[in-house]
Amino acid sequence: MMDFTGTPTISSFTVTPENAGGRLDKFLHEQLPSLTRNQVQVLIAAGQVKCKEAPLWHKNYTTKPGETYVVSIPQPKPTHILPVAIPLDIIYEDKHLLVINKPSGMTVHPGAGTKEDTLVHALVAHCGDSLSGIGGVARPGLIHRLDRDTTGLLVIAKNDRAHISLSEQLRNRDISRGYNAICWSVPDHARGTLETGIGRSIRNRQKMAIYTKTSTKAKLAVTHYELLEKLADGGASLVAFKLETGRTHQIRVHATHLKFPIMGDKTYGNPLGKMLAKMTPEQREASKAFPRQALHARTLSFEHPISGKILNLEANFPDDFLKLLEVLKS
Questions:
Q1: Which domains does the chain have, with CATH numbers?
Q2: Beta bridge partners of residue 10, listed in sequence order
Q3: What is the mean pLDDT of the segment spanning 78-99?
Q4: Residue 292 needs a FRET pair 20 to 30 A away by CA distance; which of 58, 125, 165, 206 works?
């Protein structure tokens, strides 16, 4: 459930012919990606979504072209998350936002089984009460996320105005996110694009799986890739990825589907024997021992929500990634 109270933030969204005919909660979730679908449903049930000043009480209300829905998002209650002084590698910061270089092993937000060592705990300590509350009590300031063992750039909003702008840029695919990964094998083509559906696996709910683009069990996922360098006599490669969408495990799932899985990915990335056979003993040992997915969010580009200036930011490879890369180049 959402834990909100106080003066609301008001947003309005008009249905285009392309968006008409679907469920109200799905439409609003697409417009407000910083909220979960369940949070959107709570807002509807609480009468916080209106059309022509009348509340729309049903989450499965059918959207109609030309209708405008006004959404009131009350301010969050004070966070129950205690501040924890965890050092942050800050790439950029002003009074509206900050961009950090997340290390491996840091979970982004609290959840089942997490301790008081998440990025959110560190942000509460660093920013105090200035974080945007649109994400709710457990996710203040968060615009997007990275997996626990993926390193690299994350942008965090310090106020609701910045949060709304950055969320809209993300929804409109105006935030450019570039990743580098060390992969098993080498892509068949120097560059390409994969466009599929990605959804929860029906065999293992802890994993994501490939579906058709039109499947009702999945969401559209679009990934661009480019081969940067062949490594270890073709047993591995350095690959650049650029996201158009941001589905859970998207790069990891797409890389495996394309048969150059990310090295160290215990969930999706097991190597084939022919890849190891091309490597020297030192390269095989280093590759098999790498303890996490070798995936790094290296670049981030977006329009500053207040000044309008384009920020182009980059984070260097972490030490473990660099060491593996050097071994595979030798």
A1: 4-76 (3.10.290.10), 90-172 (3.30.2350.10), 178-297+322-329 (3.30.2350.10)
A2: 72
A3: 89
A4: 125
